[in-house]
């Protein structure tokens, strides 16, 4: 049985992209190891989850300052390098699949590469833009120029590069990545796993008959623009009787968002429902009439494509969404209710447009499903597996797909 090792500086249980890849490989007949951060979801440093062997380092993700980022990146790099030294002789890896951040983590796989392993570099973040956004740095800043250099030597080192959408691929090609060396595997939702989630127990909050419910589910941080949505509710609520906005998730912005809702006098129109387990998300989405994704626009977020968008689409919900470059690349105005990013008034316009128009909502939802079909997880999964086969040879004997384990995490 051919063996693949995946490196990710994150908690494996909640890194949905990495879990999708790892479990797809197991189902296709590969043996899969993962090197990741230790989390509160397992008391063991090494364990097996849905057929995937997970090895962890107790490091945490405190982040914040650049020095803290550098410390965590360096510590995880050293651990992965040493762990691969000890595992490679026993496991004889065929592929090392390295997921950024950081980009230089790819060099932790130098020993397996010398032993014949192929290196796949999954760039699901664009590091220079990430730091430009996070710290307000200009493109000509010394740190950004250094990050672009590290990015280039990292993707040059890899045998193949994966990224998450066409606009990012074009961006990287402009920075020296060969088009023939790169494939796109998008952040699409595994519809089989999503559909298998339990809907037997209804959510603890019930909606009133005839009520119009808009919903956001995810982390409450500034970049996702929940304050923009609340201001839009403040402008539009008088034109939308019995409309509510339900916010699922937790984060650093919750208190400020609650205070904003109270200041605008719409606290009775907005429900903060707290963290929701991933397996409970489908039953919550069943309760809403539309999803709202008010993501801010900046140099990094222009390239974002949220998992939440896919989840709304596959459950047949229309989506009110920021007009960001990547999302606009894949979806038309006939599929999503776009509004200009950072503009509460334009968001309020789309909210009132969908309110009281079930025919419009149904048309948007149906067209979004059609436009999503070419990039759904079945398509992306087969693309990833074909890439794996091409790099190391014929696919092994297909294994029975493991049962889905329910792991508690934030949506």
Task: Summarize the topology.
Elements: E1 3-11, H1 16-27, E2 31-37, E3 46-49, E4 52-57, H2 66-91, E5 93-99, H3 110-114, E6 118-123, H4 127-135, H5 142-157, E7 160-163, H6 166-173, E8 182-184, H7 191-196, E9 212-217, H8 226-236, E10 243-248, H9 254-263, E11 270-272, H10 281-285, E12 290-293, H11 307-314, E13 319-322, H12 325-330, E14 337-339, H13 344-354, H14 358-372, H15 377-392
Parallel strand pairs: 1-2, 1-5, 2-4, 5-6, 6-7, 7-8, 9-10, 9-12, 10-11, 12-13, 13-14
Antiparallel strand pairs: 3-4
Helix pairs in contact: 4-5, 8-13
Describe, in plain words, how this protein is organized in 3D.
The longest helix is centred in the first third of the chain and has 26 residues, at 66-91. The chain is 40% helix and 18% strand. The strands form 2 sheets. It has an 8-stranded mixed beta sheet, with helices on both faces. Strands 11-10-9-12-13-14 form a 6-stranded parallel beta sheet, with helices on both faces. It has 411 residues and is α/β, with parallel strands linked by helices. It folds into 2 domains: 3-188 and 376-392, Rossmann fold (3-Layer(aba) Sandwich), CATH 3.40.50; 193-373, Rossmann fold (3-Layer(aba) Sandwich), CATH 3.40.50.2000. It is globular. It is built from 15 helices and 14 strands. 41% of the residues are buried.
